[in-house]
Amino acid sequence: MKVLTVIGARPQFIKASVVSRAFKDIRPDVREVIVHTGQHYDANMSDVFFDELCISRPDYNLGIGGGTHGQNTGRMIEKLEGIMKKIQPQWVLVYGDTDSTLAGALAAAKLDIPVAHVEAGLRSFNRKMPEEINRVLTDHIAQILLVPTEIGRQNLRNEGIADEKIKLVGDVMYDASLYYKSKARKPQLPIGLSDKVSEYVLCTIHRAENTDNRQRLTNILHGLSDSNVQIILPLHPRTRSKIAEFDLGIPENICVIDPVGYLEMVWLEANSRVIVTDSGGVQKEAYFFGKPCVTIRDETEWVELVDAGINQLVGDDTNLIAKSIREAKFSLLNSNIYGQGNSANMVVDLLNQ
Ligand code: UDP
């Protein structure tokens, strides 16, 4: 059997790494052909993940990035179609909610190749998010929808997707966090900071709704500043360029570092006091590592964490951001809401049928 995996962005490298390992472990006869669309191309947003997480080098690198959503998606579909025709895989495997996800799914569907979507069923119910459009469309053309949570299953049922296509497998990111926790590595931090490291707050900001809106970005930076705590911010390239474009200063309590590899990120998460983020993956990792999360968004796909009281949605409300960071607490949950840590094996098993 041949499976063609389409990936292109940081969180997809992490998710694919555990599924690729599962293929090698339990189905070594499967040939996995990896296509990297090139959506993320910087060394610290791409290469480091292939190196550290031991993902096989991509069989194809499309080198498509830097354009608009429409340009990127269109160019990806064209190139992917050619590759799929040549490889003729039994499955196309796509992850998450990026332009690469949608392009992979569309190219396959038009060629009548079945699509399996890992992390299906998530909804923010905010159609202004490009990610939401990518998710909804991908889910409606996939043959197997691999959902991480019961809520994901319910979202798909509500949209009329047939029950037999929906498979509850848990979250492959939970598998990743378990596997890589013992391999976590402390990153190089500026002198002086590493001594008081257990007191820091870890922050990531990269969603377009926050970075591309000057007022929102300003409010968020003010909220981080007003919290008066030491913050470590591995800065996404998009956020870096928007801060420069809007001529915003970095508050003194924020230590900006370059984006880190996953092993260093896991260390930073596991050793932080609180995590502040607009990332989907980082919200879950906060829970995996027992940290309270302050989410700088108006809504989240991971509603179960909010319902459990360990993730607070604060939008771009400056006062609420500062207060929530200061007061955030984690209370342990009994059940594991993201599966048993064997999701990748379940994905591979399902593709065999
Ligand atoms: N991540 C990382 N280095 C960083 C920031 C994030 O390895 O400097 C990881 C993080 O641990 C998580 C994933 O990237 O596993 C999340 O990716 P991102 O926030 O870009 O996307 P999202 O999850 O919002 O789709």
Question: How is this fold's topology laid out?
Answer:
Blueprint: E1 2-7, H1 10-26, E2 31-36, H2 43-52, E3 60-61, H3 69-87, E4 91-95, H4 99-110, E5 115-118, H5 130-141, E6 144-147, H6 150-158, E7 166-168, H7 172-181, E8 201-204, H8 208-211, H9 214-226, E9 231-234, H10 237-245, E10 254-257, H11 262-270, E11 274-277, H12 280-288, E12 293-295, H13 303-307, E13 311-313, H14 318-327, H15 343-351
Parallel strand pairs: 1-2, 1-4, 2-3, 4-5, 5-6, 6-7, 8-9, 8-11, 9-10, 11-12, 12-13
Helix pairs in contact: 1-2, 1-7, 1-15, 3-4, 4-5, 7-12, 9-14
Bound molecules: uridine-5'-diphosphate.
InterPro entries: UDP_GlcNAc_Epimerase_2_dom, WecB-like
Family: Belongs to the UDP-N-acetylglucosamine 2-epimerase family.
GO molecular function: isomerase activity
Briefly say what this structure is.
By secondary structure, the protein is an alpha/beta fold.
How would you sum up this structure, described in words?
The chain is an alpha/beta fold. It folds into two domains: 2-171 and 339-351, Rossmann fold, CATH 3.40.50; 194-327, Glycogen Phosphorylase B (Rossmann fold), CATH 3.40.50. It is 44% helix and 15% strand. The protein is built from 15 helices and 13 strands. It has helices spanning 10-26, 43-52, 69-87, 99-110, 130-141, 150-158, 172-181, 208-211, 214-226, 237-245, 262-270, 280-288, 303-307, 318-327, 343-351, and strands at 2-7, 31-36, 60-61, 91-95, 115-118, 144-147, 166-168, 201-204, 231-234, 254-257, 274-277, 293-295, 311-313. Strands 3-2-1-4-5-6-7 form a seven-stranded parallel β-sheet, sandwiched between helices. A six-stranded parallel β-sheet has the order 10-9-8-11-12-13, with helices on both faces. Helix 1 runs parallel beside helix 2, helix 1 crosses helix 7 and helix 4 packs parallel to helix 5 (130-141). The radius of gyration is 20 Å and the shape is globular. The termini are close together. The model has no long low-confidence stretch (mean pLDDT 95).
